[in-house]
Amino acid sequence: MNIQYEEKDIILQVENLSISYGEKVIIRDVNFIERNVVRKEINQGQVVAVLGRSGRGKSTLFRALTGLVKPSSGKVLIPDYSQAPSNGMQPAKEVEEGDVGFVDQKYTLFRHKTIYDSLTFALRKSGEKGSEKKEKVMKYLIEWGLEKVKDQYPNELSGGQRQRVAIIEQLLSSGHYMVLDEPFSGLDIGNIQNARQSFKLIENGHDLNTIIFSTHDIELATELADSIYVMGYPRLDDGSLGTVGTIVRHFDLKALGIAWRTEFTQDHLELVKEIKSAMLAS
């Protein structure tokens, strides 16, 4: 049985995005749109997976999505909630550094700050009072199972705990958008399960919460994501393979009726085969 949902306003738009380093073009003409997904009686955020073979431009795309690199051409747009809606539409703005949280594989944290102090520091630009910051930080620590380690330092935590702290830190400082580069890489089975739970906590926290992640685990991507993009080299008119990355396929798991399933099904397996084929061909 398909789960009912509605798609509302655009929350992320990548428009004719190209990025070059010097004369070398890394990605070209990347276009996609993601909308706010609404389900009845549940906060439903968006989970977007970006898959592709090594060297196809995934990391470069992520740097553009987080404002860490400026496009050579094109735009990355998100809603500008500092402005009032106009004609029922939220004005858009180009992404700037700090608008979108970014968690890399190193889970970079302040070495000399406790977990509690690091998360409080992440709220330094929020304009909230000290008591409000404390309440918000403690709420996250409790919800994410980190209350008992709040006075410890990063080097005293497990890899899974450091990852959760890094995610919370970015949520507190950047708002609804989160990019995670290979969040499951190097984690054991227990910490992979913890990372899955982290995804659910972000998803269910707010309708606008949007996770964008990369992984080499295609099955895990089909299980967690509701939208999957394959980055690759496109086929040229003469049948040869290009040398510049772009999006070659999009799979909308919502429209396919397999988003938000509680079990991994035969439908997921069929999709995995199709995604593998698209990756191998690009």
Explain the overall architecture.
This protein is of the alpha/beta class and 282 residues long. It has one domain: P-loop containing nucleotide triphosphate hydrolases (Rossmann fold), CATH 3.40.50.300. It is 31% helix and 26% strand. The chain has eight helices and ten strands. The protein has helices spanning 58-65, 115-121, 130-143, 159-174, 189-205, 218-224, 253-256, 266-280, and strands at 6-21, 24-38, 46-51, 73-79, 92-94, 101-103, 177-180, 210-214, 227-232, 246-252. A six-stranded mixed beta sheet has the order 6-7-8-3-9-10, with helices on both faces. Strand 7 (177-180), helix 5 (189-205) and strand 8 form a beta-alpha-beta unit. The longest helix is centred in the last third of the chain and has 17 residues, at 189-205. The two termini are 33 Å apart.
* Total separate domains: 1
Look up the CATH topology: Rossmann fold
**SSE order:** EEEHEEEHHHEHEHEEHH
Estimated helix fraction: 25-40%
Distance between the termini: 33 Å
Short description:
This protein is an alpha/beta fold.
Features:
alpha/beta; 8 helices; six-stranded mixed β-sheet; 282 residues; four-stranded antiparallel β-sheet; single chain; Rossmann fold; 10 strands
